[in-house]
Amino acid sequence: MRSGSGFFRPENLAGDDFGYLAGACNDAFIVGNSPRVLPSGKPGAVHIDVSVFHSGTLYTDRDAIAALGTGAVHMVWPVSVNLESIAPEYGVVNLPFSLTDQFMQSEGAVAELSDMMSKIIEGRGIRVMGLMRTADLIFLFKEKAVTQPSDLSGERVRMTGGRVLQSMLREFGASPISMPATEMAAALMQGAIDGIFTSAGGWEMVGTNAAQTASYIPGLSLLSYTIVADDKWISSLPEDLRKVVVDTTNELVAMRGRKASKRTRRRCSCSWIRAAIW
Fold this sequence. Notes:
alpha/beta, eight-stranded mixed beta sheet, 278 residues, 32% helix
């Protein structure tokens, strides 16, 4: 399995431990190097032997997605914008003002959305297990506040990627620039970019010395992770283990959504972030 930050190689992972493992993966996408179903030592019981690789240590998001169905990768938790690389129409979940907390927390909404998104990538051997809310994106500039779309005209703005977000920034007159999050603070301070479109967590990474002003447009862009799995592998699991994986994933999606929503409201309500209604 692969998640968002470092290597983790649990041996003899029991089905009941799947929730702990996945819950421990911060901003995770998961890759199973060789998740085999093995006897657990208990009569009639089995477990999944799992390897976890955190972000960037084995594959990039896009490479991990591409490896699904090959047998090398079994489950991936990428940022949803990366699914646009295999199906441009997947960008519907990244449209401005599309996903909201009210929708994501409505009973049955995420399951229906997951089914719809699975149909978009149908035929590629990939199953969408769920979508997790992560964070609202904000604009960071050294001093400039973004109070209306025209404030972005002519600005070079670093963003997470994805055709939909790039198109949105171009519509505002900005020049979208993709670069690793680790490089954006230096790029802003050196003048290689004018601003950054990132999360409040990204602002913590950049620091207020580099970006003194943050602007939040409620609902403009709610970032999500899509949990995708090798459909053949999921289907091949014994029914009890498949149920553990599916049910625990659903629980994690709900739990993560509630926590992420509360964290975003807390961060975006701070006096340093200027809110604007478009």
